[in-house]
Amino acid sequence: MLNSLSGRFLVLTTVFVMLAEVLIFVPSIARFREDYLLTRLERAQIASLVLLADDMLETELEAELLENAGVFNVVLRRDAVRQLMLSSPIPQPIRSTYDLRMASPLVLVSDAMRRLVTPENQIIRVIGAPVREAGLLIEVTMETAPLRMAMIDYGVRILLLSAVISVFTAVLLFVAVRIFLVKPIKGVVGYMKRYATAPEDARGIIQPSAGVTELREAEEALLQLQTELTHALKQKQRLAQLGEAVAKVSHDLRNILTSAQLFTDRIEMSEDPLVRRLAPKLVNSMTRAVSLCEGTLAFGRAEEPAPTLTMIKLCDVIEDLIEAEQMASGSGQVEIVSEVPPDLMLRADPEQLYRIVMNLVRNAGQAIAATKSNGTVTISAREDTEAWWLSISDTGPGLPKRAQENLFTPFQGGARKGGSGLGLAIAAELARGHGGSVTLRQTGAEGTVFDVCLPKGDGTI
């Protein structure tokens, strides 16, 4: 129980209340001592007034007055004359003198604590002002043992009362914490456990109801997290189902393409110059298609192969891509321009780099084609001391706001109607495999620019 929030709160509350009572106890015991001494002075003054009324008091009556006042003798100063009013034998010399007329709170506290820790019975002189201005001062001598016992008795009663108050307060706070904090927190924990057991069950999604502001904020944050996680899990489930279907299609398509590769080998033997020129392009396209199918199957098994990094001449990859894309489109509506330095070498997987640039170029071409007007896609490259940079820019209409908010998210980042949004997601994933990234530099009515970063070092830029 002590390890729980309410249990620790109970203990801490008790300790803090007791600490507060101790801080109150010190001035309280000092005040009690002052009141005790002032009471003795007042009693002594009353006893001296009896003597003033009758100068001929019997010795027995005088002793009784002193005993009732709790003092040994009384000195009263009236009209600048110091007069011994009542007296009796003092058992030992006077050890200390205390003047209560001008004592500061600090002095009173110090004297009280010193008296409390001094068990020895001593004779002290106490000086004070008479009540109702019945003289200049009154002075008595008394012993300290009764004073100390009265202070101890008062202190014990104060401590017992403090303990009762602290325990009672702690119990009330314990109940309040259980009702207003622990119970709502357990409710949040229960929702979390229920949701973890069955994320697809909508009943496990929390409904914020706490009245405490901080708990309400925690419930609302949990609601947002559960909603987003549920959406992500559903999306992942759909992607898993789609991936399974794609893997099956890729498996059969790979077999078909492998057979087609055998026929392309025969086409290369043709004497037709046009066929001989186009045959290598067809062979490369078939090889990439087979490689893509094999990669899709590996991805479906959660075994996406790491890129095979080699130093390649970038312009060869880009020229091959431009020729293949222009032959595929055939309309001439989109012009693809290369501004890649002819001698630029970089380290990458040639097949995966081809797919990265192909997806970006194809997305740009589709955006231009959707406007039913001519446009240009430009591929440029540069390098610095840390990375190689490829830029793919177009003169298209720019990305819509929804596409910008969901870039690189499969099935959500499509910029055109009917698009799947897979192109950017694939390009970004392949770039991450190289330790790099694909980022959107700018987009708008003047066109869109994507940057591909491939690091030269260990992948950190």
UniProtKB/TrEMBL annotation:
<feature type="transmembrane region" description="Helical">
    <location>
        <begin position="158"/>
        <end position="181"/>
    </location>
</feature>
<dbReference type="InterPro" id="IPR036097">
    <property type="entry name" value="HisK_dim/P_sf"/>
</dbReference>
<keyword id="KW-0418">Kinase</keyword>
<dbReference type="InterPro" id="IPR003594">
    <property type="entry name" value="HATPase_dom"/>
</dbReference>
<keyword id="KW-0812">Transmembrane</keyword>
<dbReference type="InterPro" id="IPR050351">
    <property type="entry name" value="BphY/WalK/GraS-like"/>
</dbReference>
<keyword id="KW-0547">Nucleotide-binding</keyword>
<keyword id="KW-0808">Transferase</keyword>
<keyword id="KW-0597">Phosphoprotein</keyword>
<keyword id="KW-0067">ATP-binding</keyword>
<protein>
    <recommendedName>
        <fullName>histidine kinase</fullName>
        <ecNumber>2.7.13.3</ecNumber>
    </recommendedName>
</protein>
<keyword id="KW-1133">Transmembrane helix</keyword>
<dbReference type="GO" id="GO:0007234">
    <property type="term" value="P:osmosensory signaling via phosphorelay pathway"/>
</dbReference>
<dbReference type="InterPro" id="IPR003661">
    <property type="entry name" value="HisK_dim/P_dom"/>
</dbReference>
<dbReference type="GO" id="GO:0000156">
    <property type="term" value="F:phosphorelay response regulator activity"/>
</dbReference>
<dbReference type="InterPro" id="IPR005467">
    <property type="entry name" value="His_kinase_dom"/>
</dbReference>
<feature type="domain" description="Histidine kinase">
    <location>
        <begin position="248"/>
        <end position="458"/>
    </location>
</feature>
<keyword id="KW-0472">Membrane</keyword>
<dbReference type="GO" id="GO:0005524">
    <property type="term" value="F:ATP binding"/>
</dbReference>
<dbReference type="Pfam" id="PF02518">
    <property type="entry name" value="HATPase_c"/>
</dbReference>
<dbReference type="InterPro" id="IPR036890">
    <property type="entry name" value="HATPase_C_sf"/>
</dbReference>
<feature type="transmembrane region" description="Helical">
    <location>
        <begin position="6"/>
        <end position="30"/>
    </location>
</feature>
<dbReference type="GO" id="GO:0000155">
    <property type="term" value="F:phosphorelay sensor kinase activity"/>
</dbReference>
<dbReference type="InterPro" id="IPR004358">
    <property type="entry name" value="Sig_transdc_His_kin-like_C"/>
</dbReference>
<keyword id="KW-0902">Two-component regulatory system</keyword>
<dbReference type="GO" id="GO:0030295">
    <property type="term" value="F:protein kinase activator activity"/>
</dbReference>
<dbReference type="Pfam" id="PF00512">
    <property type="entry name" value="HisKA"/>
</dbReference>
